[in-house]
Amino acid sequence: MKCEGTILKMKSESGRPVSYYLPVGNNEYPLNPLIGNTISMQFTGQINCISCGKKIKRSFSQGFCYQCLQTAPEAGESIIRPELSRSHFGIARDLEWAKAQDLCDHYVYLAVACELKVGVTRHHQIPQRWIDQGASYALKLAHTPNRHIAGVIEVFLKKYIADRTNWQGMLKSCGNEKINLLEEKRRALDLLPAELRKYSCNDNAITQIDYPVSAYPITVKSLTFDKTQLIEGILQGIKGQYLIFNNETVLNIRKHSGYYLQIEFPDH
User: Which is it for strands 38-48 and 242-245: parallel, antiparallel or unpaired?
Assistant: First the structure.
């Protein structure tokens, strides 16, 4: 089968394992059935901003043109740094967007890919946020009424716990089972001052996430269409937002959101 169009980050559905779909133009293609088969992806040289759609020579922050990087609400600084959200003061690039995305319930969470990390996500993005980061285990730590407070808790805890995923380690393993998430949650809550500890979440359920991976790479070599126009190989697995190929190369799909590709893969 051949298809072409602008790609966006992979979509996922919870399951054992996770089911992945790749948006290409106006269609979505299931990826799990392609594991064990050869995929060919050709970059045409065209990039479109994922916010305004205009053609651009380079993208910023995973798919935006420079103007949208500066003005689009979905590219605001609080996306990366939640503590900088000011929407609770009525200050935002787009207040209607902020009401739905910032002024809603958020969770601070602990997750394990290859090591422990702390993070923030909107309530409706669980477990997709954990899947996008390649977490094998995760649980909720705190429940807040807006993005800002969740960010403040994360900033406090990242003095003790990593707030970034080791992507290479994540792609080499199926998770570190030696980390006791419930014990780590107790330790993290004990670190918080009383005014932040009051947001602690009573839900202690641990979510386990299995990925469609037939073999994990021993070493990892990251590919990019900015250097290689044609990327092809036998798909061995999908984890986070990465395609894992048989030659221990990986491709970060989300990084290439907005890229116009010509793709060829077997019919299923």
Answer: unpaired
Cis upstream peptide for 17 (omega within 30°): yes
Per-residue tokens: 215: 């073999």
Phi-psi sector, 241: left (phi>0), alpha (psi -120 to 50), beta: alpha
CB of 87 within 8 A of CB of 146? yes
By three-state DSSP, how is residue 65 classified? Answer: coil
Q: Which two tokens stand for residue 92?
A: 């935002």
Q: What is the mean pLDDT of residues 133-162?
A: 97
Q: Can you tell me the distance from the alpha carbon of 144 to that of 141, in angstroms, rounded to the nearest whole number?
A: 10
Quick: pLDDT tens for 219-258: 999 999 999 999 999 999 999 999 999 989 999 999 999 9
H or E, element range at 79: helix 77-80
Separation between Cα atoms, residue 239 and residue 255, nearest integer Å: 14
- Residue 109, Cα to own-chain centre: how many angstroms? 14
d(CA 162, CA 159) in angstroms, rounded, equals 8
Do 10 and 244 contact (CB within 8 A), yes or no?
Answer: no
* 3 in Cβ contact with 42 (< 8 Å): no
**Residue with tokens 């133009």, as numbered in its chain:** 25
Cα separation, 129 vs 27, in Å, equals 22
> Pairing state of beta strands 249-252 and 221-223?
parallel
DSSP calls for 135-155 = -SEEEEEEEESSHHHHHHHHH
Q: Are 242 and 252 in contact (CB under 8 A)?
A: yes
Overall pTM > 0.70: yes
Q: Are 98 and 148 in contact (CB under 8 A)?
A: no
